[in-house]
């Protein structure tokens, strides 16, 4: 059981598109207002855990994973473009960028190959290995989905603590550029690992 949590935390809490978006949201002063985004991420993880737990690992493999990766890379690049173009104006400690929404968290995580990589080994190897199925599968999936909510939430909290100490718009413009470039890097890395390499074989 400890191995399940160790793997889940190790994958979910490392930097990735969802966590970088959470960090950006916190920096821009939307930690509380973006709570729907965190819940959307957790909901996506719940869907993935239940889907892979019941259907098995043969559903998303080969061309299926390549298709999900193409969609994920495209969506991550789109989000990077939106962050890059976001205007930043500070008026009475409020940033011009809008909070992230539930739908954005849900779609980003469902199309995030990192989310699939996180759930597949747990749902198809670790759960069956310790006899988790049926109602126990639903309960464990719920617990891990709650853990997933905390990943972008914790990044956003850190961002909000840092953001409160900074009041110059230039910082936020540069931060948005850095976040956008990191997201583009993530999209390229995912494209290389999950699209180019499988097609090149």
Automatic annotation (TrEMBL):
Keywords, comma-separated and alphabetical: Cell membrane, Membrane, Transmembrane, Transmembrane helix
Q: What biological processes does GO assign it?
A: cysteine export across plasma membrane
Name where it's found.
Cell membrane
- Which InterPro entries does the record match to this protein? LeuE-type
Residue intervals passing through the bilayer: 6-23, 35-56, 62-84, 137-162, 174-195
Q: Name one GO molecular function term.
A: amino acid transmembrane transporter activity
Q: What is the superkingdom listed in this entry's lineage?
A: Bacteria
A GO cellular component annotation here is: plasma membrane
Q: Name one Pfam family in it.
A: LysE
Topology versus the membrane: Multi-pass membrane protein
The protein's name: Transporter
Native species = Marinobacter nanhaiticus D15-8W
């Amino acid at each position: 059981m400890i191995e399940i949590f160790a793997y889940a935390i190790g994958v979910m809490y490392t930097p990735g598109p969802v966590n970088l978006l959470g960090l950006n949201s916190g920096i821009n002063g939307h930690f509380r207002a973006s709570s729907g985004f965190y819940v959307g991420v957790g909901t996506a993880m719940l869907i993935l855990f239940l889907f892979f737990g019941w259907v098995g690992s043969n559903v998303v493999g080969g061309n299926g994973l390549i298709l999900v990766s193409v969609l994920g890379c495209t969506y991550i690049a789109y989000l990077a473009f939106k962050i890059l173009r976001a205007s930043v104006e500070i008026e009475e400690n409020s940033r011009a960028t809008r909070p992230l929404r539930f739908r954005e968290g849900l779609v980003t995580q469902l199309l995030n190959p990192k989310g699939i990589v996180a759930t597949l080994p747990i749902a198809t190897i670790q759960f069956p290995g310790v006899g988790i199925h049926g109602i126990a599968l639903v309960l464990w999936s719920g617990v891990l989905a709650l853990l997933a909510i905390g990943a972008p939430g914790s990044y956003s909290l850190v961002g909000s603590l840092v953001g409160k100490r900074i009041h110059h718009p230039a910082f936020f413009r540069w931060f948005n550029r850095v976040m956008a470039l990191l997201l583009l890097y993530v999209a390229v890395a995912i494209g290389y690992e999950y699209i180019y390499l499988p097609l090149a074989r």
